[in-house]
Structure formats: structure tokens, C-alpha cells
Amino acid sequence: MTTRRSVIKAFCALPLIACLPSIGHAQNIVDFSKLKGGYAQRLKKILAAGELPYIDIESSCNSTKLDIDSVANSMDQLNIGLMALSAEIGKGQFKKSVRFDKLSEQLLAQYPDRFIPVGNGGQAPALTEATDEFLDAQEAAARTKQIMLLGEFEFRHYPSPRQVKRGEMERDVHVPIDGPIGHRVFSMSEKTGVPFQIHYEIEDELLTPLENMLEQYPKAKVIWCHLAQIRYIERASRYTPVYVDALIKRFPNLYFDTAFGDSGSIYPPSNQRHARV
Question: Most CB atoms within 10 A, among 68, 136, 172, 215?
């Protein structure tokens, strides 16, 4: 079975092709109205062929190991209409003082009809060890219209099944969503009008802090990624269809990304199927 994860993994297994064009500042090439027109044409073309186009707003990659042409070709094969492919700023790049990766600039230069310009993934160490520098760079990109969407910020994140199997437990992250970093991110979305994504495990003790932030920042546009991904069901007794319905009614500024594992995906530490629709 071909999944989004396997496709992205294949993209990033190849070295960066040296023929990427040298282009100017993103604000000189990003015309949101023109981009949206191109997006509409692409989606209508896929629909006219009798297919349902996927819109993937939450994929990420190592931008230094990416074959952009392969990404674009696979999107055509898999009926992925649009993709927001975010660059992760890993430890190596972080040490080199990279605070904003211009991957979207490269993607738009080659395939402007299929990539949504997006900010970088908000994860450690950049988010937690260079918070102001990292968030200043994301806010500057939003204000200068380089991006339509802020990246995925990891507030509560368990290591993925693959990371667990490899013993990579550093992705067990807990940044309080109602702490200083959370307030900065929510405020940034309110001020710029740009949506942002959160990775936030569905657990009883985490829900009230999120609800409080949604109330405090009603103009912040929040996309909660991986709706229904629950890795420890005993920690999520409040999660029900009634609860989700109540969230939708209470918070018109809250949106959901519905990408999660298939029915056979099991989270190793809990031995539970973690896709609970």
C-alpha cells in the first residue's frame, strides 16, 4: 500500500539535485492571487478526470535531500492536488544558524501550481533553544507574504512508530501550549492572519489548556493535525464525537487535518491501534 509517508520517504532518500535555479527573494515571486488561480485550475483538471484530489497541508522533509521533480511526478500519479511541504530545521542546520529555510521558494519557482508556500516545522531544537530568532524569522516571512501557512508546531509530540523502533526518543516533546512559546505562536497568527498547525496529542490533561488558548486568541487560525490519532487510549477518555462536535461549535477558528495511520498501524509503546476515527 502506498501511503503519504512512504512517498515522502522516497523523495528524501535522494540527494538534492544540483540544477535548482538560483532565484531572488521570495517576496518578488509570490503572488497569492495568481497562485490560487493556478491551484484552482489544477484541482479542476483532476476533478474533470473523475478523480478526487488530495490536499496535503502537513508533510515535511529534509530540504537538503529532496528531488523536487520526483515529488511533482508522484503528486500527479497519486492525485495529490496541492501540497504544503515544510522544511524541517534539524540539528545540523540549527548549528549553522539557519532560522528560515527557503524551500517553498524553490518549489514555487519550479511548480507554482501545486505547492503551497509554508513556514518551517516548529520543533526542537530551533523552537526551544532559539525561540525568538526562529519565530521572528517565521513572522517576518508571514508579514512579507512569503508564506500562506505557518508550519507544524510540536507542542506535545510522541516519537513516531519508526522513531521508537530506531530508539530515537528525543522527539518525546512537551512544550506547554499555554506557556510563553504557545502565546507567541497564537499571537503571531492573530497579528498576521496566517494559519498555523499544531501537533498536540489528544489526552485529557492537555485539552483544557488548548481550549483556553483558543478562547484567548479567537482570531488565531489553528489547524490541529492528526485528528483521531490517539496513542494511549486510557489517557483520552474525553475524546468522543460529542467532544469534537462541541469544539467545532465553540471555536470557529479551529480546523482539523485528518491525516493519520491506517487500521493496521500500531503504536509500539502502547501496542494500540492509534487511528481512532
Answer: 68
48, exposed or middle or buried, with CB in 10 Å at 0-12, 13-18, 19+?
Answer: exposed
d(CA 178, CA 196): 15
CB-based contacts of 78, cutoff 8 Å, min separation 6? 2, 7, 54
**Nearest-angstrom CA–CA distance, 14 and 67:** 6
If phi over 0 gives left and psi between -120 and 50 gives alpha, with beta otherwise, what is residue 167? left
pLDDT digits (tens, 9 = 90+) for 123-167: 888 899 889 999 999 999 999 999 999 999 999 999 988 889 998
118 closest CA partner among 153, 92, 74? 153
Q: Nearest-CA neighbor of 55 among 156, 192, 148?
A: 148
Q: pTM for this structure?
A: 0.85
Cell of 72: 511533482
Grid cell at residue 118: 509554508
State the number of CA atoms in the 13 A half-sphere of 219 facing the CB.
Answer: 8
> How many Å separate Cα 140 from the centre of its chain?
18
DSSP 269: T
Contact assessment for residue 255 and residue 198, using Cβ atoms and an 8 Å cutoff: no
Residue 106 and residue 175: Cα distance in Å, rounded?
31
Q: At what angle do helices 131-143 and 180-192 cross, to 10 degrees?
A: 10
DSSP 6-17: HHHHHHHTSPPP
d(CA 83, CA 1): 20
Q: Is 161 helix (H, G, I), strand (E, B) or coil?
A: helix
Q: What are 35's three cell numbers?
A: 497562485
What percent of the chain is predicted at pLDDT more than 70?
86
